[in-house]
Amino acid sequence: VAKAYASLVVQTPVSFVVLSPLTVTVKEGDNVTLDCSATGYPTPEITWSRLKGLPQSSRVDSNGTLTINGVKTEDGGQYSCTAKNALGKKTHSVTLKVVLQEDPSETSGMRVFGVNNTEVILKCSLCVLLRGFTFSWERIGAEMPSDRIDQSDCSLVIRKAILQDSGNYACIGRSKFSISVMTREVFHLTVRGPARITSLFPELRAVPVGGSVEVKCDGVGPPAPEVYWIKGTTRIQSNKSETLRITNATLQDSGDYVCHAVNYLGSQVKGTKI
Predict the structure, then answer these.
(1) Are 135 and 154 in contact (CB under 8 A)?
(2) What pTM was estimated for this model as a whole?
(3) pLDDT 10s digits, 46-72
(4) φ and ψ at 266, to 5 degrees?
(5) Three-state SS for 92?
């Protein structure tokens, strides 16, 4: 009796298993790893690409991971991972954002003050002084408020600035003739706004006769506000602080107390009942 044997090979298409998020943010000088692994049969071949080419400091490991050592600002951009086998291919794209590293020793730079919900303009003097350079803007240690900015070589405009826009910004100049020649001008931006009360605790407090009570009222700026308390129409002179303190309470201490936080841009009030 003759016997015949056959082997069955089932091919499967590419399927991604582990992927990096669509956007990855890294500080300049740090190392970054972009993940891309896939299954399928035959085993998929994984490649990485970028329109400007992969950085010289990058490598692709056998598991499909792309590692970039000592990231530079020019390494930012869109990276594409492609997994391919005989049944087809799939592509996943990752946007790498590189932000400047905060330098604790860097105290020089222009101090700029803006007002909440108004336009702030930073002007780069290096752009006027230096020829043969191209200029760009970066936020040091954080991402730009990209949905509210307009930038050119010489200026950065932040529309409807908010308190969270406060921080350090840099105008970066790079030589057109040598990529190793770079200079920058730093701006220390503080966005100021009306005084706000972030918390008042407790909002209602029962205290026995002869007892004591403290109510904390947190007022913030910038600029830092004056915080004081009023009962009825009378300012409580003994409480020139954020904390209302009543000791050896009497029935006359019962009532409504209002905390005021005030700076030159505005004020806010919140009340409590004792």
Answers:
(1) yes
(2) 0.59
(3) 999 999 899 999 999 988 999 999 998
(4) 155, -175
(5) strand
